[in-house]
């Protein structure tokens, strides 16, 4: 059972006068990497949010965004008149000392200063708001995991098709092995025949040929590659995060395919190896998306 690291989850919580929206987005990453954008009133709860996300999602680059909208009919912000008055006096004093005219548009100038808008929203979220946010976060995580599972099912199908393809290519290798041995024997005998007035021991030739062919034997590589293919398939059905494990198995598959290619010494076998490598690269690319 695979889970992709790509996912999206969203949940909304309603409170009297407030609407809280929690959004989670994740992409692939070797470790858990969380970027959080939360209102200042919820900063004290950010660590708890991060711990909850890390425990549930395990791996991935995760973006957490929380919006808190004030939906009450009355205004929740006020102009800070005392601050505006003080800023205006300072600007007028500076203009007089520098001998420059005062601004023609006071509103544009004064609204650029900090703290000229005073919010009536509490600086710290109360217990009800914190509980609502954590509940919404849990629901957003559930939605994201459901998304990940859907993407994981697509990956399972993708991998199964590629593993079957490598198995099919591997099954074609034996038909060229006998022909390869005969070609090697013929090439060696033809080479010796071109050397005139040289007598050689036929039995010694057979012995050397045997040793040479034994070095090119690919039975072990075929068996190990088959085992890796089976292990990969078994791992697909295992619960939990299997992305790293599948990556390691794919590396071992690559080693056997490379050795098979270096020993093949046959054009058709080398073509099969190239096709196996191409399919394996597709697997390796998608393994990076597995949790």
Structural commentary:
With 291 residues, the chain is of the alpha+beta class. It folds into three domains: 7-74 and 125-148, Ribosomal Protein S5, domain 2 (2-Layer Sandwich); 77-119, no CATH class; 151-287, no CATH class. 60% of the residues lie in helices and 14% in strands. The chain contains nine helices and six strands. The strands form two sheets. Strands 1-2-4-3 form a four-stranded mixed beta sheet. Strands 5-6 form a two-stranded antiparallel sheet. Strand 3, helix 1 (46-57) and strand 4 (60-70) form a beta-alpha-beta unit. Helix 4 (127-171) runs antiparallel to helix 7 (219-236). The protein is elongated and about 115 Å long. It starts with 6 loop residues before the first strand and ends with a helix.
Estimated radius of gyration: 35 Å
| Strand order in the sheet with the most strands | 1-2-4-3
The helix-and-strand class reads: alpha+beta
What pattern of helices and strands is seen along the backbone? EEEHEEHHEHHHHHH
Q: For the residues shown, what is the average pLDDT?
A: 86
Could you tell me how far the N terminus lies from the C terminus, measured between alpha carbons in angstroms? 11 Å
**Proportion of residues in β-strands:** 5-15%
Q: What portion of residues is helical?
A: 55-70%
Cofactor: a divalent metal cation
Keywords: Endonuclease, Hydrolase, Nuclease
Domain Endoribonuclease YicC-like C-terminal: 176-290
Family: Belongs to the YicC/YloC family.
């Amino acid at each position: 059972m695979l889970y992709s690291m790509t996912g999206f989850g969203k949940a909304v919580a309603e409170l009297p006068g407030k609407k809280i929206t929690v959004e989670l987005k994740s992409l692939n990453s070797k470790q858990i990497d969380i970027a959080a954008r939360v209102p200042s009133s919820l900063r004290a709860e950010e660590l708890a949010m991060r711990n909850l996300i890390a425990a549930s999602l395990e791996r991935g680059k995760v973006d957490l965004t929380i919006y808190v909208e004030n939906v009450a009919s009355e205004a929740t912000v006020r102009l800070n008149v005392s601050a505006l008055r003080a800023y205006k006096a300072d600007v007028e004093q500076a203009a007089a000392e520098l001998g420059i005219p005062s601004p023609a548009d006071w509103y544009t100038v004064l609204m650029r200063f900090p703290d000229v808008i005073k919010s009536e929203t509490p600086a710290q979220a109360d217990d009800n708001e914190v509980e609502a946010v954590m509940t919404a976060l849990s629901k957003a995580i559930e939605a994201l995991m459901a998304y990940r599972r859907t993407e994981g099912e697509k990956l399972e199908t993708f991998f199964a098709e590629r593993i079957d393809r490598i198995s099919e290519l591997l099954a074609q290798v034996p038909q060229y092995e006998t022909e390869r041995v005969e070609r090697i024997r013929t090439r060696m005998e033809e080479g010796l025949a071109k050397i005139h007035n040289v007598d050689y021991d036929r039995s010694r030739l057979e012995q050397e040929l045997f040793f040479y062919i034994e070095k090119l034997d690919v039975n072990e590589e075929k068996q190990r590659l088959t085992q890796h293919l089976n292990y990969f398939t078994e791992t697909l059905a295992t619960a939990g995060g299997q992305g790293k494990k599948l990556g390691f198995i794919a590396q071992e598959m690559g080693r056997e395919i490379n050795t098979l290619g270096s020993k093949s010494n046959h054009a058709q076998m080398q073509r099969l190896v190239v096709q196996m490598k191409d399919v394996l690269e597709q697997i390796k690319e998608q393994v990076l998306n597995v949790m």
